[in-house]
Amino acid sequence: MIDDWRLKPHGFRTAVTGLTNTYRAGRRALELLLSEPNPGAVHEYRKEVKYIGYQLRLLESMAPSMLMPTRVCAGALGETLGQVNDLAVMATWLDGDPGGFGGSRQAARARRLIDDRRSDLQRRSISVGLRFHTEEPDALAIRIDHYWAVWREHGPEMAIR
Length: 161
Fold this sequence. Notes:
The chain is mostly helical and 161 residues long. It has 5 helices and no strands.
């Protein structure tokens, strides 16, 4: 459905402003995650990354060779952050009812596995996030503006498969 949406020229500025603001909020959420690595910070960062992916999807058709990889990265990063969040929830359940998971010994063993996996996924997510958010928000807006200008002057790219 979203793939059928078309931006009008006057709507483009609104879309770029929205993307820039969301991207800036994502950078702030990543900074918070770096300073306070907790499930709440993971959740907030995941939300911003997912919003960026949705907004990129609206703009992607003007420069798919440049924007599709970024959107795909946002989707994968959002999914991985979701797994980090799910593991945090699972750890909370385990802590709240170790008997429901086979007893204290089994729950402690499962908790170690969960914590190890969550830590690894979170570390990898931060590594990707630092690359994903390396560009300054205003530089992102300028780059998107250039894609728009090229698209308006020269039309769509050839199909990439």
